[in-house]
Design goal:
The structure holds two protein chains of two kinds. Chain A is an alpha/beta fold. Chain A has 17 helices and 14 strands. Chain A has a seven-stranded mixed beta sheet with strand order 7-8-9-10-11-12-13. In chain A, strands 1-4-5-6-2-3 form a six-stranded mixed beta sheet. Chain B is globular. The model of chain B has no long low-confidence stretch (mean pLDDT 87).
């Protein structure tokens, strides 16, 4: 594939930018947006990223600091009032910088910079209110995990609420994504998030996604839905059992691979169709294994998301080679979703990672972009979705002493 | 929410919506039936006011049976519907709420609260039970007779609740296993049936009895005295206790069991209570005085007056606090009875009940004994499905009209409704003593249906024999 073709295809360009990175030109560095991002990064200690909007509204996320040092195949250059990305060949494509949210400059009432509590990635606000993870304490941390680098205390509910309020008020996010580590309790860690979730759902018309480890018992999955979670991710990461143990020893030895499947299967029955998600990291295992994982997950009613394993790639990796590798995976994913009647609309907010929505750029087939994606991502659409989700929950969730189950 | 168990209904959403909406469909259907009855041309023999009361009665009946609303709220609905439909003024309707039966029930609840809170009721139960527990059959006899006797003087649900920890102590001391132990089933079934059977003996065992008396008095001016009721019903109670004992022994106690552990447990529990406190003695004296007054002075002093006076004495001597009363008294039941009495009075005064009696099977010239059988069977069947107080509220207005039509003493009809409506043996949801026995984990529904159905049939037979041969001897003619 030529560089021109590469730069004209937003999916390929995103992939190439993820793999090989991008440099920021000197004139761009002087622009208010980027200089503000660098200043914030220096002031708060937060490793900030640039969210760059490519054609077709495809968003790519690039760490700012990584753009400052080495030579890269792409350069972000200033063009008039806007920006473009220029390849070494001289070809360029116009892009926009997703504005760095205003609330990044604000502090909570307790004095914590809000940017340390939650950051926006495209359409969603990501928060890890409690950094506890017993995998790390037991020296069983997942190899790709950066949780160990976080040294913050558990944020209070009020601090999280202030941050969410600020992000939603300025329209910086329309979806909340909470992340939590593992605890050796029956709930697997989800109970740590419960007060935050309930407070968020009580106060805002917004959907909440959670990334957690599977709880030991299924009733905590029911409780997770009941407490207000709209979409749940139990990330398997790798299908191959041996590689799974190498990459995620805690997940394999403490939780168990089979528990991921059984928990995902149960969650798919409890949550709305398309709201149960699991990562399969492309590049971490052979393609055939990833495809088996896709088959397994989609058959369970789970939507696989496909992040790229950056650590396994080098800047010299040829994007077209990478693209050739992932093309059959996306084709396979599209088939799996269609076969199991799964719509990726609900996860369209997670547009930074590679997921089914991006498949159209690699599969060469009709787009599998959710038909209602545009509606769902609009402000009214997100509010409507949150309220419909609330109604569904009220209809389906009952205290255990209700004996409707006898009708089953 | 943490730790709270929920279930997520995973059926197709359309079915979930239908299931969750059934309540509102129920309300709509009841409203439609109400409207249809109001809108029909008034049939011959029925007044316009009677037609409106009939619509309120049918709506209330459906709400009581379906339990779409709490019983008390349905009664309040009936109460306010009477003035709103122009049947009577607000003053008249709310004045009916001040019926003597309502205050008698309230006073009886207060007295029972004092007995439970002071530990007096448990002490009485244990003292009597100690005299029985020498072998397995005597222990079961004790577990049947003690709650039966207690339910003469306090509400049967309170007796069942009080007996539950004692029964639990017995099965634990004998190391009996839930579901599997037949003797364990016998322990809990005996305690439940004892409370149920004993609960029909006086006005105090179940508030449905005063409710029936209240409707009788409000509609006819006739009443039944405390002693008169006991005289009429206690023989049936004794007969049913004997039958229940032999049924329990036959079904659950086929082989001799060593109950020495249970005897020790009862002794130990009795010792835990320590010596009789002054508070218990005082409460016992006041309750005893109230019972004697109900028996000997009930007709002259008034049952409610005696009850409330006894409560005043309890407070005068600081034997009970208002907090104790608030914790214990079921105010919903009191509200329910007020509304039911008002509706019963309206049914009678507008002749709506008489019109129903004239228009149904009851219009046929049945022999009085057959009529009594129909009423008793209806009551005992209904009480398995709905609250026994609701059965009384539904059947009493009709029963009084039928009594007039047939020239039967309305007291007889009142007993034919109130006594069988208290005898719910078969289902856990029928009455609190059954629910408590079921909650033990020892008794399953099949056990209750099996033994309960035999006891229900025996109850109807015993009731009919009593009515035919014994009641005429004490002046209850029909």
């Amino acid at each position: 594939m030529t560089e021109l073709a590469m730069i004209d295809n937003p999916g390929f360009l995103k992939l190439d930018l993820v793999i090989r990175g991008m440099k920021i030109s000197r004139d761009s560095l002087d622009s208010p947006e980027i200089s503000r991002a660098i200043r914030l990064s220096n002031e708060t200690g937060a490793a900030l990223e640039l969210n760059i909007i490519l054609p077709d509204e495809v968003i790519v996320n690039i760490p700012v600091l990584a753009c400052l040092a080495e030579e890269k195949p792409y350069t972000l250059v200033k063009k008039g009032d806007g920006f473009s990305i220029r390849a070494q060949s001289g070809e360029a494509v116009e892009v926009r910088l997703a504005p760095t949210p205003q609330y990044y400059d604000r502090k909570t009432t307790s004095g914590v910079p809000m940017v340390r509590i939650g950051r926006t990635y495209g359409g969603y606000l990501a928060l890890s209110p409690n950094p506890l993870c017993e995998f790390i304490e037991d020296d069983l941390a997942c190899h790709y995990c950066d949780l160990s680098t976080r040294d913050h205390r558990a944020w209070t509910v009020d601090e999280v609420l202030e941050t969410v309020d600020a992000a939603l008020s300025e329209g910086a996010a329309e979806y909340i994504c909470l992340n939590v580590g593992y605890t050796r309790s029956a709930d697997g860690g989800i109970a740590l998030l419960e007060p935050y979730i309930q407070a968020i759902k009580d106060r805002f018309d917004v959907q909440v996604c959670v990334q957690a480890q599977p709880p030991a018992v299924d009733h905590w999955i029911d409780s997770s839905y009941a407490m207000g979670i709209d979409s749940i991710a139990y990330n398997l990461e790798v299908y191959d059992p041996q590689i799974f143990e190498e990459i995620a020893p805690g997940k394999m030895r403490v939780v168990g691979r089979e528990r991921y499947f059984s928990a995902l299967k149960h969650a798919a029955k409890i949550f709305p169709s398309g709201a149960v998600v699991s990562n399969l990291i492309i590049g971490s295992e052979p393609v055939a294994s990833t495809m088996k994982g896709i088959d397994m997950l989609t058959a369970l009613g789970v939507i696989p998301t496909l992040p790229i394993y950056r650590l396994g790639l080098s800047a010299s990796t040829d994007a077209s080679t990478a693209a050739q590798t992932i093309e059959p995976i996306y084709r396979h994913l599209g088939e799996g979703l269609r076969r199991n009647r799964l719509s990726p609309t609900l996860i369209s907010h997670f547009n930074l990672a590679f997921n089914a929505i991006d498949g159209e750029y690699f599969g060469g087939e009709a787009p599998i972009r959710g038909r209602w994606e545009t509606v769902v991502k609009s402000k009214r659409g997100t509010r409507l979705a949150a309220n419909l989700s609330r109604v569904r929950r009220r209809l389906r969730v009952r205290p255990l002493d209700d004996d409707f189950s006898e009708d089953h | 929410m943490t730790g709270a168990r929920v279930v997520v209904d995973t059926r197709p959403l359309a079915i979930v919506v239908m299931a969750r909406s059934s309540r509102y469909f129920g309300f709509l259907a009841i409203a439609a039936i109400f409207w249809a009855i109001i809108s029909f041309p008034t049939p011959p023999g029925l007044t316009v006011a009677g037609q409106r009361v009939l619509a309120i009665f049918v709506a209330s009946l459906l709400l009581w049976v379906s339990q779409l609303l709490p019983l008390a709220i349905t009664s309040l609905f009936a109460l306010v519907s009477l003035p709103l439909s122009g049947v009577m003024s607000s003053e008249e309707a709310f004045a009916l709420f001040g019926n003597e039966a309502v205050f008698f029930i309230m006073g009886a609840f207060f007295l029972a609260a004092a007995m439970v809170k002071s530990g007096l009721s448990s002490r009485v139960a244990l003292v009597f039970l100690r005299r029985f527990g020498t072998d397995d059959r005597r222990l079961i006899l004790g577990l049947l007779l003690v709650p039966a006797f207690m339910a003469f003087w306090m509400p049967e649900h309170a007796v069942a609740a009080m007996m539950f920890p004692i029964s639990l102590e017995i099965v634990n001391s004998l190391e009996l296993r839930p579901r599997r132990s037949r003797f364990g089933k016998a322990v809990f079934v005996a305690a439940a049936y004892g409370a149920i059977i004993g609960g029909v003996a006086t006005f105090l065992g179940g508030a449905r009895n005063p409710l029936a008396i209240g409707i009788l008095r409000q509609s006819t001016g006739v009443t039944i005295g405390f002693f008169e009721w006991m005289t009429a019903v206690v023989p049936l109670v004794l007969f049913l206790l004997v039958v229940a004992y032999f049924l329990i022994i036959k079904f659950f106690v086929q082989e001799a069991s060593d109950v020495s552990g249970a005897v020790r447990a009862i002794e130990s529990k009795a010792r835990e209570l320590g010596v009789v406190s002054g508070q218990e003695r005082m409460i016992a004296a006041i309750v005893l005085a109230a019972i004697l007054a109900w028996i000997f002075l009930g007709n002259t002093m008034g049952l409610a007056n005696i009850a409330i006076l006894a409560v005043v004495f309890l407070f005068m001597f600081k034997l009970v606090s208002w907090k104790d009363i608030e914790d214990y008294v079921n105010w919903g039941v009191i509200l329910m009875y007020g509304g039911a009495i008002a509706l019963g009075f309206a049914m009678d005064s507008t002749r709506a009940a008489a019109w129903i009696a004239d228009s149904t099977i009851l219009a046929r010239q049945l022999a009085p004994l057959t009529l009594l059988l129909v009423i008793a069977v209806t009551a005992i069947l209904l009480t398995e499905g709905i609250s026994n107080a609701a059965v009384v509220a539904i059947l009493m207005p009709l029963g009084i009209s039928v009594a007039r039509k047939y020239g039967i003493d309305p007291k007889v009809i009142t007993l034919a409704i109130a006594v069988p409506s208290g005898l719910a043996y078969m289902l856990p949801m029928s009455t609190p003593p059954n629910a408590i026995a079921y909650s033990s984990g020892f008794v399953d529904i099949r056990d209750m249906v099996k033994i309960g159905s035999i006891l229900a049939i025996t109850s109807v037979v015993g009731f009919m024999v009593l009515a035919r041969f014994y009641w005429p001897l004490i002046g209850l003619e029909f």
